[in-house]
């Protein structure tokens, strides 16, 4: 009726998630980024914090925005010892593109959403690459962008996991 929805008719991810769920998941994403994956000989590791930021930006846009992405990027800059603002620029770029396409993405299933996530992660990695190239880093090959593919492959599992949190919260 005139665009007014009963709260029982809305999908579970449309309902507000408690802030502590968001904060804990962002902290876990930050910790997963800080794990020394290179010691395990894993060739590509996705940016878990970026994936978590993208998820909450798409599904809970009032909780996560570009300011949170910028602050998270500054944390990653300090943690990696990178140029200050490098990850902040990359995260804000990805979140901006995600916010532009948010309504479109929510219409798709998780596999088609993952195709969009590839674009967001690619934009993020491209922003990082431009900063590296500006500062005289060596030229990288296409394998640099494999992490975007791995991150997109993890996207359906993230939707399932965070969807489980939302369903569990509504059962009480």
Report on the architecture of this protein:
The structure is a single chain. Helix content is 66%, strand content 0%. Mean pLDDT is 84; it is low at 1-10. The protein has helices spanning 19-34, 48-59, 66-80, 86-100, 102-105, 110-134, 146-171. With 172 residues, it is mostly helical. The protein is globular and about 45 Å long. Helix 4 (86-100) runs antiparallel to helix 6 and helix 6 (110-134) packs across helix 7. The protein has one domain.
Strand content: under 5%
The coarse overall form would be globular
Mean pLDDT reading: 84
Cα radius of gyration in angstroms? 17 Å
Q: Major sheet, described briefly?
A: none
Q: Distance between termini?
A: 28 Å
Total tally of structural domains = 1
Number of extended strands: 0
Low-pLDDT parts are: 1-10
Number of helices: 7
What portion of residues is helical? 55-70%
Structure classification:
mainly alpha
Q: Give helix and strand order, one letter per element, not per position.
A: HHHHHHH
Characteristic key phrases:
172 residues, mainly alpha, 0% strand, globular, disordered N terminus
Question: What's this entry about, in short?
Answer:
This protein is mostly helical.
List the helices and strands and how they pair.
Layout: H1 19-34, H2 48-59, H3 66-80, H4 86-100, H5 102-105, H6 110-134, H7 146-171
Helix pairs in contact: 1-2, 2-4, 2-7, 3-4, 4-6, 6-7
């Amino acid at each position: 009726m005139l665009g007014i929805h009963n709260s029982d008719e809305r999908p579970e991810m449309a309902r507000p998630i408690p802030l502590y769920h968001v904060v804990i998941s962002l902290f876990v994403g930050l910790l997963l980024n800080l794990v020394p994956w290179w010691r395990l000989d894993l060739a590509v590791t996705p940016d878990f914090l970026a994936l978590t930021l993208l998820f909450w930006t798409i599904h809970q846009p009032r909780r996560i925005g570009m300011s949170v992405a910028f602050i998270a990027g500054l944390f990653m800059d300090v943690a990696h010892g990178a140029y200050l603002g490098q990850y902040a620029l990359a995260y804000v770029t990805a979140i901006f593109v995600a916010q532009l396409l948010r309504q479109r993405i929510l219409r798709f299933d998780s596999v088609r959403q993952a195709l969009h996530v590839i674009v967001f992660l690619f934009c993020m990695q491209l922003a990082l690459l431009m900063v590296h190239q500006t500062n005289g880093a060596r030229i990288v090959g296409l394998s640099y962008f494999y992490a975007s593919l791995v991150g997109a492959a993890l996207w359906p599992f993230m939707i399932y996991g965070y969807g489980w949190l939302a369903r569990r919260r509504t059962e009480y």
